[in-house]
Amino acid sequence: MMLDAVAELESRNIAVTAGFRSTKQLLAGMLQLSPAEAGTRVAHATQLAPRRALGGAVLPALLPNTAAALGAGEIGPAQVRVISETMNAIPAGVSADDREAAEAELARHARSFNSIALHRIGQHILAHLDPDGPEPRNEPQPAPAAGALRFWDRRDGRLGLEGYLEGEHRAAFRSLIEQLAPDARL
Questions:
Q1: Which of 52, 25, 61, 36 is nearest to 14 (CA)?
Q2: Of 50, 6, 8, 5, nearest to 24 (Cα)?
Q3: How many CB atoms lie within 10 A of CB 112?
Q4: DSSP 64-119
Q5: What pairs with residue 151 in β-bridges?
Q6: Residues 10, 33, 79, 45, Cα dihedral to 10°
Q7: How far apart are the C-alpha atoms of 1 and 134, rounded to whole Å?
Q8: Distance between CA atoms of residues 9 and 22, nearest Å
Q9: Where are the domains of the chain?
């Protein structure tokens, strides 16, 4: 019942109308929940409660088997969290039929296993659905450091300096020191 109420608050944007930034903030304030717990409740409600199409038709929950198991008291919030996280980790290219089968399987196992064991089952399902694993990231590697310097204020009021510089950084630093402190020993 609570999930339906939270889903209704979210779908109607009632929190903003009531002066809150989000349903999460409204729940946190009204029910004395941590922001994380309020966010979890909103996320679960949007996945487990029936939805409405733009035309007003009622659509099933995104995780209908999980919703049924939770509604029957056969699973708890920890299992819902694992199922939600597992389903969110399924790659976009996986078919709707395979997604539905995965959710049904997770909900079935959630009735018999705690969240730790269910997480392992979820990892096996993910490995089956995506045997190659996630695509490697093509992020550029950071350029190697051209040196490392560490500065600190000493108790005697002087500046402590330790490190090394390479290439053009070395030349620029040397030039700067020579201009600012011509008597410095480099």
A1: 25
A2: 6
A3: 11
A4: HHHHHHHHTTSS-HHHHHHHHHHHHHS-TTS-HHHHHHHHHHHHHHHTTS-HHHHH
A5: 161
A6: -10
A7: 37
A8: 10
A9: 2-129, 147-180
Question: Residue 53: phi, psi to the nearest 5?
Answer: -75, 170
Is residue 51 within 8 Å of residue 61, measured between CB atoms? yes
Alpha carbon distance 44, 77 (integer Å)? 9
Q: What are phi and psi of 149, to 5 degrees?
A: -130, 145
Q: Classify 151 as helix, strand or coil.
A: strand
N residues, the chain: 186
Predicted TM-score (pTM) of the model is: 0.64
What does the pLDDT profile of the chain (186 residues) look like in tens digits?
588 889 888 888 888 889 999 999 999 999 999 999 999 889 888 889 888 777 778 889 999 999 999 989 999 989 999 999 999 999 988 999 999 999 999 999 999 999 999 999 999 999 999 888 767 777 676 666 667 778 777 777 787 778 888 888 888 888 888 888 777 666
